[in-house]
TrEMBL record:
SUPFAM superfamilies: P-loop containing nucleoside triphosphate hydrolases
Domain of life of the organism encoding this protein: Bacteria
Entry-linked Pfam families: AAA_33
Protein name per UniProt: AAA domain-containing protein
Length: 107
């Protein structure tokens, strides 16, 4: 397994950070954690000033920071049969009332 790598992007507004991040994600099959994405989903219509941004961005960083550190320090997770059974017991097939487009791929 390759060593995890964290790409941290910073720069001025509209300098191409999001475009570069999407490119890195595609090139490395990476996980993209986007502050803009999290802010817009968790705090819709609540960021109207720089002060609002700072408040909410700090809240996200307080949660995501430790998560990213934990993700980068882990390697393969191999569940025991009992753990696999326990975890999968929580999964249920989608119900038509959920309005999902279900696509089944058979290998």
């Amino acid at each position: 397994m390759p060593t995890p790598v964290l790409h941290l992007l910073c720069g001025k507004i509209a300098s191409g950070k999001s475009t570069l991040a999407r490119s890195l994600k595609a090139e490395h099959s990476a996980v993209l954690l986007s502050e803009d994405h999290w802010l817009s989903r968790l705090y819709p219509d609540q960021i109207k000033s720089v002060a609002d941004y700072i408040l909410h961005a700090h809240r996200i960083r307080d949660v995501l920071g430790p998560l990213v550190i934990d993700m980068l320090s882990r390697h393969d997770f191999a569940a025991t049969d009992a753990e696999f059974d326990l975890i999968t017991s929580y999964f249920r097939a989608p119900d038509q009332t959920e309005g999902l487009d279900v696509v089944i791929h058979r290998i």
